[in-house]
């Protein structure tokens, strides 16, 4: 079964403006992110990732594995601290880092003009109205 070439006329070209499931328009539709702002946004994004992944690696690997024996001299809830970090602490810190990442990136996106919020609203306020 051979595939026949499709029509190459103007009707066969995909036009995004005529698609059925277009996203809602926002106040950012007409904006174009300049090269410098895009670079600045990406630098801030990478900095956030490096810091949060560093914290996660320190807690998961450092406190759970490398410093586990030393941390076992301290107790938390009746359990050695090194054991606690290995079993629960790393997961709890990871969940906290997700929340921190969300708030931090929301701030960075607003500062660089790439947020998805409607004009003059912040996350949470719009749904409360």
Key phrases:
single chain, 129 residues, mainly alpha, two-stranded antiparallel ribbon, 4 helices, 2 strands
Could you explain the architecture of this structure?
The chain is mostly helical and 129 residues long. It has a domain at 53-115. It is built from four helices and two strands, in the order H-H-E-E-H-H. The chain has helices spanning 35-66, 68-71, 81-112, 125-128; strands at residues 75-76, 79-80. A hairpin with a 2-residue loop joins strand 1 and strand 2. The longest helix is centred in the middle third of the chain and has 32 residues, at 35-66. The N and C termini lie far apart (58 Å).
Strand order of the largest sheet: 1-2
Sequence of secondary-structure elements: HHEEHH
What kind of sheet is the major sheet?
A: 2 strands, antiparallel
Amino-to-carboxy terminus distance: 58 Å
Q: What is the percentage of strand-forming residues?
A: under 5%
- Any low-confidence stretches, pLDDT <50, length ≥5? 123-129
Number of strands: 2
Helical content stands at 55-70%
Based on secondary structure, the structural category is mainly alpha
Radius of gyration equals 24 Å
Mean pLDDT comes to: 76
Give the overall shape, derived from the CA principal axes: elongated
Tally of individual helices? 4
